[in-house]
Amino acid sequence: MADPKGFLTTPRQEAPRRPVEERVRDWAEVHVPGGLLPIVGAQADRCMDCGIPFCHEACPLGNLIPEWNELVARDDWRAASERLHATNNFPEFTGRLCPAPCEAGCVLAINQPAVTIKNVEVTIAERGWAEGFVAARPPGRLSGRTVAVIGSGPAGLAAAQQLTRAGHTVAVYERDDRVGGLLRYGIPSFKMEKSQLERRVAQLVAEGVRFRTGVEIGKHLGADRLRARYDAVIVATGATAWRELDLPGRELAGVHQAMEYLPLANRVCEGDLEVSPLSAEGKHVVIVGGGDTGADCLGTAVRERAASVSQLDIYARPGDVRDEAAEPWPTYPKLYRLSAAHEEAGELRTAPAADADARLFAASTLRLTGDADGRVREVHLVEVDAERRPRAGTERGLPADLVLIALGFHGPERRADGLADQLGLGTGERGGFARDATFATEVPGVFVAGDAGRGQSLVVWAIAEGRAAAAAVDRWLTGSTRLPAPIGAH
Ligand code: FAD
Questions:
Q1: Which CATH code, of 3.60.150.10, 3.40.50.150, 3.50.50.60, 3.90.105.10, is assigned to 255-405?
Q2: Whose alpha carbon is nearest atom 6 of ligand 1?
Q3: Residue 355 neighbours by CB distance under 10 Å
Q4: Other C-beta atoms within 10 Å of 56: how many?
Q5: Are 380 and 403 in contact (CB under 8 A)?
Q6: What start-end ranges are recorded for coiled-coil regions in this protein (predicted)?
Q7: What is the pLDDT of residues 179-230, one digit of tens each?
């Protein structure tokens, strides 16, 4: 490393976020653009270049983290960009969105704050774009083989790019009007602006990928016709079948699923709508579910100028620090995570909680009640103990005009005579479409990648699955492959 003792002399410093009072007035990303740049070399120099870099293992993509940290410390941005792109098609996505299991695996994290891997990653990616190191790489020659990718989320995009670069002719079918999957209509712009997506899609188009939007396979185009038209098919349709809140009052007006609410807010950012029909403006908002989707609802409701926002989490808060007994290094701490949105709602919270954010921990929803017009007015909850048993005397009501259900997803959507039925896809692990370790289904030439196979997961896993499924398809089409396969399907 440029300074082998960097980890002893330099404290961890993260890319700064814009002040809360400024950022809640717009939809732009929460981080100061290029915020880590002045100190990124010193931060990268905190990497110890471990003999066995556990960060590699922790990253589903196998990102070559010590290598690009060293290149940044040496100010060699072109090489850093190349090494970063060697394992990751879209590092500007993961550098913004990933919860960074690599940082949990960083050896320095045993007794010091981890290297700011994620911030270094996004800084390299942005510098790569700014200096022209990232460009279209169309294939030198075409194989004459054709592949259809169904779904344009990160898994479908990664698979399409890999297969196109390998010389195959790839078409991506997307039922929405725009490309991107959850990056487009799920994840809010304050986490990643849509211009990031557009830039990559333009790169894929320049490399030869063809996008067909507004086409739902199974409805507008039958699966049989698709199979007849292409030599191989990758199903990358995501896992967006949501969990319900099965409680009295669910039917009241003003109670919606998170994924009914967030796409409309994203459409406002796209300029399709002036105001979301479900806007939280002036409303008391209660979000049922303490995870990342709930946090996205929280940040969105704050930006829509809600009167108050509370987020209910049934889990007891285990504390800001890692619970060493439950999650010894280098396992990824799953128990409790703060999102930037949680910094934004303290002022707005009406719920009497001692926490610094808007979440009410160890709270279980009992029922929703409404007014004479059938509109929701109150969410009734009770505090629970570690075994989720109600604690006597803690029942109370929260005012609510908008209730958002963010309880996760139980797998890919299945409709009678839809895509899965037409292809005869079975159900595998975590409710996903059944496939073997090479991403292949029982239907010859049909593969499954991303959340559609794995269940609702992370962008980094979707990219890794897209890359690995592309390698499997290339092998199936040609008998061998030089494409990397960072993971197996199980
Ligand atoms: P998706 O992104 O779901 O894309 C699937 C695409 O397939 C969609 O565009 C869909 O319209 C299309 N499709 C479906 N059926 C058909 C059909 N029959 N014909 C044509 N097209 C079809 N992960 C992170 O790492 N960080 C985060 O901060 C984060 N935030 C999230 C916030 C929310 C609100 C949600 C819901 C998820 C979040 N995730 C996050 C998870 C992450 O977005 C997903 O794991 C990832 O997008 C999965 O990628 P995918 O390509 O498998 O599927």
A1: 3.50.50.60
A2: 151
A3: 14
A4: 18
A5: no
A6: none
A7: 999 999 999 999 999 999 999 999 999 999 999 999 999 999 999 999 999 9
How many A from CA of 457 to the centre of ligand 1?
Answer: 9
* pTM of structure: 0.95
Which helix (H) or strand (E) segment is 213 a member of? strand 210-213
Mutation probe of ligand 1 site: the residue of 89, 179, 182 with most atoms within 8 A of C-beta: 182
Q: Whose CA is closest to atom 39 on ligand 1?
A: 458
Q: What angle do CA 14, 16, 22 make, to 5 degrees?
A: 155
Return the structure tokens found at 60. 């589903």
Can you tell me which atom of ligand 1 is nearest the CA of 181? 9
d(CA 174, CA 176): 6
Q: Is the ipTM of this complex over 0.95?
A: yes
Ligand 1 pocket test: which of 94, 459, 467, 487 has the largest number of ligand atoms within 8 Å of its C-beta? 459
Q: Which CA distances in Å does 294 have to 310, 334, 460?
A: 10, 16, 20
In total, the chain counts a number of residues equal to 490
Q: Could you tell me the fold of the domain covering 6-130?
A: Fumarate Reductase Iron-sulfur Protein; Chain B, domain 2 (1.10.1060)
Ligand 1: residues with CB < 6 A are 97-98, 150-156, 173-176, 181-182, 186-187, 191, 216-218, 236-238, 240, 262, 292-293, 296, 419, 450-452, 456-460, 462
Checking DSSP bridges between strand 376-383 and strand 359-361, what pairing results, if any?
Answer: unpaired
Under the phi-then-psi rule, with left for phi > 0, alpha for psi from -120 to 50, and beta for the rest, what region is 411? left
Distance in Å, CA 148 to ligand 1 centroid: 18
- The superfamily CATH assigns to domain 146-240+410-478 is FAD/NAD(P)-binding domain (3.50.50.60)
Question: How many Cβ atoms sit within 10 Å of the Cβ of residue 465?
Answer: 33
